[in-house]
Amino acid sequence: MYDAMFEAKVNDLVESGQYREFVTLNRMRGEYPLARLAADNDTSPIVVWCSNDYLGMSQLESACLAAKQAIDAYGVGSGGSRNIGGSHKDYQELEKALAHLHGKEACLVFPTGYSSNDATIQCFLRMFPDMLVLSDEKNHASIINGVRSARSERKVFKHNDVDDLREKLSAEPFDRPKVVIFESIYSMDGDVAPIADIVALAKEQNAMVFLDEVHAVGMYGPNGAGIAADLGLAGEIDVIQGTMAKAFGVIGGYITGSSRLIDAIRSFASGFIFTTSLPPSVVAACLNNVRHVSQSSAERDTLRRKTLELRDALAKARIPVMTQSTTHILPVLVGDATKCKTAAKHLLERHRIYLQPINSPTVAVGTERFRVNVTPNHTSDHISKLATALAETFDRYDIPLLKA
After folding, report:
1. Which residue from 290, 253, 246, 293 is spatially nearest to 275, judged by alpha carbons?
2. Is 246 annotated in the active site?
3. What are phi and psi of 189, to 5 degrees?
4. What was the pLDDT predicted at 42?
5. Cα(99)–Cα(249) distance, rounded to whole angstroms?
6. Catalytic residue among 246, 306, 339, 341
7. pTM summary value
8. Looking at the predicted structure, is the pLDDT value of residue 52 above 80?
């Protein structure tokens, strides 16, 4: 009976075009963004165009060396949670480096970016039973889950709509605990939040501010400290959350804030207390890459240049990049779930280009898309071939191009 129920649920996804399938990619060390498909007789590599390894830091030789040295010194596992033997040598230095990057007193590292959002939000909502949560409607699933897992009252404000947020905040007593949660860059649209206006409004209404900077840290702002730092507003934000899995090219999430706030999360967040810590090799690689990105602007400068080159190539090929995107994330509109999956399969098999179809419920029905992002490692030839391949694919499957 139960297996039949599971099968029916999965079949519903298949019929709606929402069923996800893995593409097994074997990345080629030192040759990113190239990879090979598992069990593929074609010896030519594929080009990856949708990785979160935004700066190619997963390939950094010094990071690989740091990870190897940590394995030689400590083995492959951490041995337990941070409270039970899992706080090995480089953790303190990593948290110190991340706190310094954001200009905060303290930092707490989690195994993933999802868990740093989920566990932190649950924790401090439970510490303030009367706290009202105001959450942007396009916030990441990790934020949504953290909010829903607590019993706090929540209000969802329209995406990047300061007027709607103002209306919802002003309806509440000034002294009621409140927190506004939003992202600086939204990963599916590539747009940027009106951070200055939201922060000013939150402070005016006596609300805390929780800012997710995962798609900005490492790539924007002084030393890669993010959009808030670029605007000179990091000091006004109570919690800045980030990740080591994107610009820093490894894995792990973190929060930064005041020492008292961080100590409270460390002491009460069950999602932190009862999970195994990151292995020494991972922490060593993270520390290496945080230091590198903080000290080097070369990768950020190249990313900006290549993004402009990609935008220009796609525009000339009449590929419909969604207009809200102003960052390195370029959402290319397909508008149909079945066509999105079919087009992705064609790009992979004919053009040796990997783009993951983004369908509902990740994005709204009718806005199915490819999420394209260049890296410093992509060449001009890669960019040209992507534009040509997308144009051929859109024409083949009757996906609308921009008008000439």
Report:
1. 253
2. yes
3. -110, -20
4. 67
5. 18
6. 246
7. 0.95
8. yes
